[in-house]
Amino acid sequence: MGSFRTILGVLLWFLQIAQGRGSNILIYTSYGAGSHFMCAAHIGNELKRRGHNVTVIISNAYENRSKEEQYKDLQFEIFKHSVPVEEVWRRHELITKGVFKGTWRQESWYRMSEAINEYIGDCEDLFNDKELLQRLRQAQFDVALVDPYFPCTLLVAEYAAKRHVSIMATSFSHLARYNGNPSNAAYMPEMSLGFTNQMTLIQRAINCIMVLINEWMRRMTDVVSAIQDAHGICPGLRPSDLYQRSQLLLANVDFAFEFPVPVMPNLIPVGGIMTRPAGSLTQDLEEFVQSSGDDGIIIFSLGTYVMHMEEEFIVKFANAFARLPQKVLWQFRGTAPPLVDKIPNIKTMEWLPQNDLLGHNKTRVLMYQGGNNGLYEALYHAVPVVVIPLFADQSDIAARVTTRGMGLSLDIVTVTSEKIVDALNAVIHDKKYKETVTKLSAIFHDRPMTPLETAVHWIEHVLKHGGGYMRSPIHDLTWYQYYLLDVVAVFLLVFITSIVFVVYSCKLTFKGCKRMFIGSKAKTE
């Protein structure tokens, strides 16, 4: 007994030492909603479990996150918007309305100026909070984990921490290029186009145009330069230059599913950060799932940002589900209309324990909007999917799902009850989808560390050694050097000079021969 107590005491002593040596880590991914926040917070939980001190910045529009049980071990700092929180929520509702009309892309361009002003306002609100800034400085953060999709996070990272690591929560996007990863428009589609890596001539042309647009958008991040200058953040650099200061880019992608692309050593694929074994369901939910019998269940969700659905679409989905033998679990925001409640095989819930349901042996298919986290949860549990992409990178996920043979895709604008029924029946009953996703899942699971363990390992690696030694040399090249245009210019100059020299030499030789021939002929006469 005495020896056991001694061993236990030593272990506790080592644990206290380990906790005492824990680093101070800051996490900031903008508002605090959706997959961007959840990926980073999930990493934060694991860092906290390993003895680090983790602080998360979120906005007051989503401060309910700080009260959720799953984030109880994290410390939160709340910055306040200068506009009512209802106004912040309205921004997401505008996207939702455009999605169902098929006009979200056009409307995004139309309100570009408004969106930029909103973004600048949010960044100013954070940096105008002097008490918050003081607490951030006093914390002396060793590293910040930020989402550079929102460039203000880079300013916060440089202001508050010694170094920072970036996380890309989406499928492969322009953020990888901003962080120094090589990019080739011939086979690497830009985000939100929905192209595969086998593009037609027209698609490659569109892709090249999108590359130029995204590079222009990168320069648009300089609109927060006044905030940068006011707080003395990285003098001599522009906000658009701060991407290259990231020690690492954790990319939420995995090549079991993602199209193959070249990666620099500072880009670490950690696709499936949120994946984990399924937990048990509540009793009433388990009873509903079991009542499905051999037909099983269908999970239907359109994600975090869909606050409401137009009635005509509710009718389409409800009528489709009513024609299927499977039970349907529908994540429905708000109160479901009587039409839905009257259909016996449908159960609506404000929130679904999606991961736990995907791991249930009664689950036959996931029908969802194409979020990156949901995709990897389905891949982890080997569940086929039907994707209904709404906006952003979701069309890219749909392209990969159909190309990889993991499921089917539907267009939200042209969707009908018949198309929904046909797609679900095809994915459920055609064995090729289940066989394909099972094979992809086996590839995904065959790894030395889980994605979460990999992400945390590399953050701790940066804490110990830094990541500067992996910095991409692309950052030190101009655009014309990167594309070897200066080399091409030299080759052209040499080629043209050689041609001119040869032509001029031939002319001189011809003239010389002509003189000799004419002179010789004259002497003979």
Descriptive key words:
525 residues; Rossmann fold; 7-stranded parallel β-sheet; 6-stranded parallel β-sheet; globular
Going by helix content, strand content and strand pairing, the class is: alpha/beta
Helix content: 40-55%
The share of residues in extended strands comes to 5-15%
- CATH C-level of the largest domain: Alpha Beta
Count of DSSP helices?
Answer: 21
Number of strands: 13
Order the strands across the largest sheet as they lie in space.
3-2-1-4-5-6-7
Unreliable stretches: 4-20
- Distance from first to last alpha carbon: 130 Å
Number of domains: 3
What does the radius of gyration come to? Answer: 29 Å
Mean pLDDT: 89
- Tell me about the largest β-sheet: 7 strands, parallel
- CATH topology-level name of the largest domain: Rossmann fold
The CATH architecture of the largest domain would be: 3-Layer(aba) Sandwich
Shape: globular
Write up what this structure looks like.
There is one protein chain. This protein has helices at 2-20, 34-49, 85-101, 104-110, 112-127, 130-139, 152-160, 174-178, 201-220, 225-230, 283-290, 311-322, 338-341, 354-358, 372-380, 394-404, 417-429, 431-445, 451-465, 479-482, 485-524; strands at residues 24-28, 53-59, 75-79, 143-146, 164-168, 249-251, 267-269, 297-301, 327-331, 346-349, 363-368, 385-387, 407-409. The protein has 21 helices and 13 strands. The radius of gyration is 29 Å and the shape is globular. The N and C termini lie far apart (130 Å). It has 525 residues and is an alpha/beta fold. The protein folds into three domains: 20-274 and 450-476, 3-Layer(aba) Sandwich (Rossmann fold), CATH 3.40.50.2000; 283-445, Glycogen Phosphorylase B (Rossmann fold, 3-Layer(aba) Sandwich); 482-515. Helix 16 links the parallel strand 12 (385-387) and strand 13 (407-409).
